[in-house]
Design brief:
Blueprint: H1 3-13, H2 25-34, H3 40-52, H4 58-63, H5 66-72, H6 79-96, H7 105-113, H8 120-129, H9 140-148, H10 157-169, H11 175-194, H12 198-206
Helix pairs in contact: 2-3, 2-6, 2-8, 5-6, 7-8, 9-11, 11-12
Protein name: DNA-3-methyladenine glycosylase III
InterPro entries: DNA_glycosylase, HhH-GPD_domain
Keywords: 4Fe-4S, Iron, Iron-sulfur, Metal-binding
Amino acid sequence: MAFRELYELLDASVDPGTWWPADTHYEVGVGAILTQNTAWSNVEQAIEALRANRLLTPTGIAAVDKEGLKELIRPAGFMNAKAAYLKNYTTWYLANYTTAAELSDEQLRKNLMAVRGIGPETADVLMLYVYDRPVFIWDSYARRVLAAAGYAVANGYESARRALTEPMLAAEFTTLEQQRFHGLIVEAGKLATAAGGWENYWHQLQD
């Protein structure tokens, strides 16, 4: 099944919800960092704490002391590391947001991944939702649905990206389609879990 066919199958069957759930581009980055190794429900608690304290802005995160930041994001777990990562990203964001549009996709991704705390998946989320680049998110949700669709999916984010980028690019997705595709995949993953796994849910999609 081609990537475009998979997109159309999910689009006909699944409500993509709102992805990425955020009010601003900067908030996308905050959420992308906080969601590392934790459930989104925990991230929402941390984001609401930041919002309630009027800190959900680049200047707010830059100004708050690290100890105070750690307490506010405690629900998201790994608060020591994530407080540092948020500070790192905020410094980069403030220095580069307006000039990032001038960079190629490859250079932007490289620059983002040079920021401590931003790995391949987080960098791609930022590229897609903050900088409007039509990249595919090769997360665990995507790798599971691709395996169900018959692809030989390598273990790990970057391995899957390297192996399957060519057929993905053949679909010529726009940025808006990539954003919608990501939402469809996440929501389909939740439905697959409720159905007992992708083997069961894939048959439901085919009916």
